[in-house]
Amino acid sequence: MKLAKRVAALTPSSTLAITAKAKELKAAGHDVIGLGAGEPDFNTPQHIMEAAVKAMYDGHTKYTPSGGLATLKQEIIKKFQQDQQLDYKPSEIIVCVGAKHALYTLFQVILDEGDEVIIPTPYWVSYPEQVKLAGGVPVYVEGLEENEFKITPEQLKQAITNRTKAVIINSPSNPTGVIYTKEELQALGEVCVAHDILIVSDEIYEKLVYGGHEHVSIAQLSPELKKQTIIINGVSKSHSMTGWRIGYAAGDADIIRAMTDLASHSTSNPTSIAQYAAIAAYSGPQEPVEHMRQAFEQRLNIIYDRLVQIPGFSCVKPQGAFYLFPNAKEAATMTGYENVDAFVEALLDEAKVALVPGSGFGAPNNVRLSYATSLDLLEKAIQRIEWFISEKV
Ligand code: PLP
């Protein structure tokens, strides 16, 4: 059957593609080290799982309001007050099936055919596809490596046209791990307010920040910026709950109402028991979040120092999330590959290390490594990459 035009141009997630190939090799008996993971390698904390089990036995196994349980919205509101000193009303919050679905629903309700969304590169793989699925046009602005992959207000200004509807800011960033400072956000925010551009602030890695760096939400910086911003967040990365699929959006009540109407005809609601689990995640002890953060920070510091010793690799030091995004162009050239994609493919075939090529993130000279795996495996992976390079030069 002929598929809809809408999906003809859809590219499958490159992150999932490499993970699938690594799994295939593993199933065939190869000792593959996968560094493609986009999720914490910790179990969901015990008290959260217990809350979900209790919810089930208490009979909370029915439909919930489409925008999420009132109690969960209250917990999210409290979280915004505590962490960002931001006040939202329940009508300004929607709980979705993960942050990914919150973004998808948002683009569906704000974009008309041909509306442009500014996406800084390197970007998270789903942004362009989601924009296109909503009839929008992604407009890329290059975050230069020498500027820690961040875009400047001048670059933003230059990308704006009379079709620009929104800009996405993802800080801490997947794949680079860099964090915009308060001053940088202020300067970008001024451009958005002046041109009345909606800011989509994806703060899913908010809790994973290192080296004394601070996460600031652009919505915190002024009442005008709060009005101009939709915050996207969730419990997937902070509480190691990727499979539970709970994320949310906060901002303008009209946008949230439209998103809720759309959800009422698509998902009906996020899974009831997962919502109870998310209530426990926010209302319960936060120590597990900090323990996971510390474990990631320790790995980052050890692995970053090792990574930059690999011949032909250079890397901007990440400040958050759980990815390293080294430039491997020189390594690819040294070893005789025409580009980094080919280098990554050979690395998987010959050294059995799965990295994600940066081309899927709009940065073809880079590769993404996730350190959401044990230090032992990380060290082993680096040794294999070093071996692979030394064999070829
Ligand atoms: N935004 C970014 C930048 C991500 O990296 C991810 C997950 O990989 C998401 C959003 C989606 O998270 P969720 O599991 O809540 O859908």
TrEMBL record:
<comment type="similarity">
    <text>Belongs to the class-I pyridoxal-phosphate-dependent aminotransferase family.</text>
</comment>
<protein>
    <recommendedName>
        <fullName>Aminotransferase</fullName>
        <ecNumber>2.6.1.-</ecNumber>
    </recommendedName>
</protein>
<feature type="domain" description="Aminotransferase class I/classII large">
    <location>
        <begin position="31"/>
        <end position="385"/>
    </location>
</feature>
<keyword id="KW-0808">Transferase</keyword>
<dbReference type="InterPro" id="IPR004838">
    <property type="entry name" value="NHTrfase_class1_PyrdxlP-BS"/>
</dbReference>
<dbReference type="InterPro" id="IPR050596">
    <property type="entry name" value="AspAT/PAT-like"/>
</dbReference>
<dbReference type="InterPro" id="IPR015424">
    <property type="entry name" value="PyrdxlP-dep_Trfase"/>
</dbReference>
<keyword id="KW-0663">Pyridoxal phosphate</keyword>
<dbReference type="InterPro" id="IPR004839">
    <property type="entry name" value="Aminotransferase_I/II_large"/>
</dbReference>
<dbReference type="GO" id="GO:0006520">
    <property type="term" value="P:amino acid metabolic process"/>
</dbReference>
<dbReference type="InterPro" id="IPR015422">
    <property type="entry name" value="PyrdxlP-dep_Trfase_small"/>
</dbReference>
<dbReference type="InterPro" id="IPR015421">
    <property type="entry name" value="PyrdxlP-dep_Trfase_major"/>
</dbReference>
<dbReference type="Pfam" id="PF00155">
    <property type="entry name" value="Aminotran_1_2"/>
</dbReference>
<dbReference type="GO" id="GO:0030170">
    <property type="term" value="F:pyridoxal phosphate binding"/>
</dbReference>
<dbReference type="GO" id="GO:0008483">
    <property type="term" value="F:transaminase activity"/>
</dbReference>
<keyword id="KW-0032">Aminotransferase</keyword>
